[in-house]
Amino acid sequence: MDRTDIELFLSIVEHNSISKAAEILHFSQSTVSYRLKCLEKELNISLFYRRKGQRTSALTKQGELFIPIAKQWQELYKNTEEIQHYPNQLLDVAAISSVSASVLGDVYETVTSDAIKMCLHIQTAYSNVIYNLVEKNKVDIGFVAEPENRRNVLTIPVFSEKYYVVRKTRYPKAMGTVYLEDLQPDKEIFMDWNKEYENWHKEKWGNIASYHVWVDHFPLLQRFLRDEQFWAIIPGSLLPRIYENMQTVQVDNLEGDIPTDRTIYMIKNINPRENRLSTIVNFEKTLKDCLIRIPDVNVLL
C-alpha cells in the first residue's frame, strides 16, 4: 500500500467526498478516482459504493472495517519515517500541571541544556491519564499525585511536601503562622492537589462549594490572587514560582487541622523501551540533583 493512497482514502472518509479530498490534497478528481480503484484492486475489496450522479461517498462494510487499519498503517509509516531523525537521548515525559510548573521545569531546562542535550516530548495530563500512557509505553516517565495499583507500572515516591497559605499583600512580612479558622472560605482560590487534599477540604468546609473560584492550572491560581482578601493553599514546591511571579506575596505556615503532606510519585513501565533505558537513568539522576536543592520538599528517592 502507498502512503498517498491511504491519505486519500482517509480524506474521502473525513469529508465524505472524492472531490473535496482531491481539492485538499491538490490532486485532480480523476487522479483520486484512479488511485482509489488501484487501492481497492490491491486489497481485493470495494471501499465505497458508486452510484451515478451521487456526490457523497458511502462506505461499504469492508470500507468501514478498513478505517482503523488505515489509521494504524498511517501511524506506523509516520513512526518508521521518524526513526532516522530521532536523537540518541529521546524521552517522553508526562506530568500533572502543578509538578510541571514547579520541580520539573528546572529538570527540563537542565536535561535539554548543551551539557546533556536530551530531547524531550512533554505533555500535561491528569494522574489517571498518565498511568494509561505509561502502561501502554507511550510515555517513558510519568509524575502523578494519585498512586494507582497497575500491574505493569512501577510507582515510586519521589518527594513529599507540606502546604502553605499564600496571599497577595502590599507589605510582605517574614513567614508566620495562619490559623485555618481565621480564613474566609468564600475568598479561597481552590486547586485540587490530590484526593487526600480534596477529602480534607470537604471535611473542613463541607461538600457545597464555598470558595471564590476553582482552578486546575497554577498560573490561573496566581492570577486570581489579585488583592489581600483572597488566599490559596499551595504545596511547598510551588513557592519559588510564587515568589518569582508575585513580587508582593505573603507566605505563611498553616496551623490547626491542616492537610497531610502531599506526595509526588514517579511512574514507569516495568518493561521500558530498550532504546530509552540510559536516557531514563540520566533523567532520574538530574531529577534527584534538582530536588535536593529545593528547600521545601522532602526527597524520597
Automatic annotation (TrEMBL):
The keyword Nucleotide-binding does not apply. InterPro entries: LysR_HTH_N, LysR_subst-bd, WH-like_DNA-bd_sf, WH_DNA-bd_sf. It comes from the Bacteria. Residues 1-57 form the HTH lysR-type domain. Transmembrane segments: none annotated. Keywords: DNA-binding, Transcription, Transcription regulation. Belongs to the LysR transcriptional regulatory family. This is LysR family transcriptional regulator. The lineage of its organism: Bacteria, Bacillati, Bacillota, Clostridia, Lachnospirales.
